[in-house]
Amino acid sequence: MNRTAATVVLFLLGAAVLKVCLTGRYLRYVKEGLWPFLLASGLLVLVLAATNRHRHPKVAWLLPLPVLAVLLVSPQPLGSYAAGNAGMALARSDEYPPLPDGDPVKVTVLDYASRAVFDEGRSLGARRVVLTGFTATGPDGGSLLVRMILTCCAVDGRPVKVVLDGRVPKEPDTWIEVTGTFRPGSVVDDVNGERIPFLKVESVTPVAAPERPYE
């Protein structure tokens, strides 16, 4: 690869990274908090392109492949297929403070599931809550509400699952906003044996997939 070709490839790679940063598409790849590092890396690649003075081995021609993937392909967020093949992810807390004021109150799927499983629903009580996520099929054929969480990037995404007790859309990967209350009990995730709590459904509203699909 000669100097001119290498410069063009580096420029395209840096531009592709900046594009996903500035359009918000990076949220389909990595956690929101990694935005500054991703932006800095894109700028650094552009600087390298501008100061490129060396010849590069033939293997460098492989660099356009991820560039084309980023520019031409818009990946979908992890959905029901990924959720069905990964075990329930939960985070235990030392304490569960009272829910914020409001009726109903919006909470994350992770917060609700953690309170329902580890706190046995005591901090939820009879409060009406609103959860947003996508639908999937549960271990017993029931309907799940799912939200994926990331440690770093989409490749390590894991699902937080809640069994929906009520009438909900059966089509997988349907994004919905669910209003309901805590219902005691749980089912066992057949992937990793973790407990999946219930939510007693009061109402369901279809919604568009959020800009930030991961919690």
UniProtKB/TrEMBL annotation:
Coiled coil: none annotated. Pfam families: DUF1980_C. NCBIfam families: TIGR03943 family putative permease subunit (TIGR03943). InterPro entries: DUF1980, DUF1980_C. Keywords: Membrane, Transmembrane, Transmembrane helix. This is DUF1980 domain-containing protein. It comes from the Bacteria. The chain crosses the membrane at residues 33-52, 59-78. Residues 129-214 form the DUF1980 domain.
